[in-house]
Amino acid sequence: MNMIETHNLTKVYGDFTAVSNLNLHIQKGRVYGFLGPNGAGKSTTMKMLLGLTYPTSGSFTINQKKYPQDRISILKEIGSFIESPAFYGNLTGEENLDIIRKILGLPQSSINDALEMVGLIPYRKKLAKKYSLGMKQRLGLAGALIGQPPILILDEPTNGLDPVGIHEIRTLIKSLPQKYNCTVLVSSHLLPEIERMADDIGILNHGHLLFEGTLDELRMRARTAGYSANNLEDTFLAMIDADNQQKGW
Amino acid sequence: MLFLLEAKKIKHTGYLAAFLLSGIISCIFPIIHMLVRAETFTSLPGNPYVILINANWKMMTMFNILIVICGACIMYHTEYANSGMLKMVTLPVNSIHLFFSKFLITALLLAGIIFSQITVLVGCALHWFPNASFDFISILKNTGFQWLIFLPTAMLMLFLSSVCKNMWISLGIGIIMVFTVSIFPQDNFVVSLFPFCSPYQTLAVVDENSHTQFFCMSCIIQTVLFYLAEVLYLKTRRSFT
Ligand SMILES: Nc1ncnc2c1ncn2[C@@H]1O[C@H](COP(=O)(O)OP(=O)(O)OP(=O)(O)O)[C@@H](O)[C@H]1O
Ligand SMILES: [Mg+2]
User: Fold this and answer.
1) Which of A88, A99, A146 to mutate to test the interface with B (most CBs of B within 10 A)?
2) Is there a contact between A86 and B86 if contact means CB atoms under 8 Å apart?
3) If you average pLDDT over every residue of chain A, what do you get?
4) Pocket of ligand 1 (CB under 6 A)
C-alpha cells in the first residue's frame, strides 16, 4: 500500500519550474530516500506534502487523505523536519517539545522519549537559542519524532551533526519502521547516506524524477549501464550528468 | 488551551516585564503631575475625574500605544527568530487561532493596564479634589470604553507584525504611525476614528459630543476588519511562498 502518492505534482515559481510532474510512490512501513543535488526540488516537494506551499498543479494523497480538505487530519499523522530546525529560542528544549506535545495531545512521557531518542536529555533545561548547531538539529528531529507519528518527513536530518551523531540518527531512522511501523520519507544529497538508511529511493534532478525503485533495482540499473554495482555514487553522478546534458542544463 | 500555549511562548522574552514597567510608569505619571501642579487642576471647575483624564490621558495612552507596538513585535519576533512559526504550521492547529490567542493576551494585559490607570486617576481625584466622589460603576464604564477603543490599534499592530518577518519593519511602521497621528488635527472627528488615534479619545469628550455609540461601533468593526485581514493573509500566504 502506498502511504504517500503524488500525481503529476508541479510547483512553479514565477517562470521557474522547481518541481515538474512528480509521481512518487512511498510505501507503507518503508524508508524512502529522496535523493538529488542542491536545488533539485526536494524541500519544495516536502513543503507541498506538508501544506506549507500550494502545488501549482497536480495532487497528492497521504494515507488516502487529500490536501487541502483533510489538512488538519493529515498533519496529525506526520512528524516533520524541513530544511532547518524550527523552534522557539527563548524556551528550553523541553519547553519546545511540550508545546508540540500539547498541540498533538500526547502524554507527558512522550517528551522524555523524544529527548532520549535524539540524545538531548542532558541539555533539556537549556535555552534552545544557546544550543549548538547539532543540538538544534537534534531538537528539530525530536519535534518530528515525538509521539511516534505514522509518517515522518525528514529533510536532510543529518545536516550539521558530528560523525557519531550522523551514525546515531541514521541507525535510528533505519530502525523506525520495525519499531513503530512508520513510513519515512527522508531527503539527502548524499547517495552513500541514502544507501545506508533507505529501502526505496527516488532520484530527483531539476524537478524531474530520474529514477524510482528499490536500491537493488538501482544496482541492477548500474550494472546494465556498465558501472560497478559497488559504486552507486558513480551511477548517481552519471545519471544526473546525462540528464543535465540531454536537457541542456 | 492554545491561549495558554501562546502565553508560554512569551517566557524569557521580556514581554510581561515590558508591559508591567510601562503600566507602572504611566500610572505614576498623573500622580507626579498632581504633586507638582495640583492647584492648576483643583482650581478648575467641573468633574474632577474629567479634569484629570483630560490632563493626563494623552501621555498615558502614548505609553499604552508604544507598549502595544513593542508587544506585538516581540510576540512575532519569537515566532520568526528561529522559525518557531514554521513548526506551528506543520502541526495540526489552525494558524488563525494562534493569532487570536496573541490578540487575547494583548487585550487582557491592556484591560489590566487601563483599569489601573483609570483607578489611579480616580484615586488622584479623591485625594486632591474636595468634591470628588467614588463611583465604581463609572470606573468600569470608563475602563471598558478606553479598552474597546484601543482594540483596533492592538489588532492592526499584531496583523502588521505577523506579516513582516523583520521585526524592525513592523516596529518602524508602528512608531511612524504614532508620530504621523500626532501631527493630524486632534479634534477632527474622522481622524479620531482611526487606529493609533482613537485610543487618545476619552469617554467624557466623546459623550459630550454624543458620538459614543457610533465611536464604539466603528472600533468594533475595525477590530473585526483587521482580524479578517489576517484571515485573508493566512489563506493566501501559501500561494506565494
Ligand atoms: N520561495 C521560492 N521562490 C522562488 N524560488 C524558490 C523558492 N523556494 C525554492 N525555490 C527554488 O526552487 C528550487 C528547488 O529548491 P529546493 O529548496 O526544493 O531544493 P532542494 O532540492 O531542497 O535543494 P537542497 O539540497 O539545496 O536543499 C531552487 O532552484 C530554488 O531556488
Ligand atoms: Mg532542501
Assistant:
1) A88
2) yes
3) 91
4) A 13, 16, 18, 36, 38-44, 189; B 241
Which of A51, A76, A99 lies nearest to residue B5, judging by beta carbons? A99
> What ranges do the domains of chain A cover?
84-149
A with B: how many residue pairs have Cβ under 8 Å apart? 82
From B7, which residue of chain A is nearest by alpha-carbon distance?
Answer: A99
Residue A32, C-alpha cell as written in the block: 524512502
pLDDT digits (tens, 9 = 90+) for B52-101: 999 999 999 999 999 999 999 999 999 999 999 999 999 999 999 999 99
> How confident is the model over B178-211, as pLDDT tens digits?
998 888 877 788 888 899 999 999 998 888 888 8
Ligand nearest to the CA of A13: 1
Write down the pTM of the prediction: 0.92
Report in angstroms the alpha-carbon separations of B227 from A32, A49, A225, B151: 41, 28, 60, 11
Establish if A114 touches chain B: CB-CB under 8 angstroms. no
**CB-based contacts of A124-128 (< 8 A; 24+ apart in sequence):** A124/A92, A124/A93, A124/A94, A125/A92, A125/A93, A125/A94, A126/A92, A126/A93, A127/A89, A127/A90, A127/A91, A127/A92, A127/B12, A128/A87, A128/A88, A128/A89, A128/A90, A128/A91, A128/A92, A128/A93, A128/A96, A128/B82
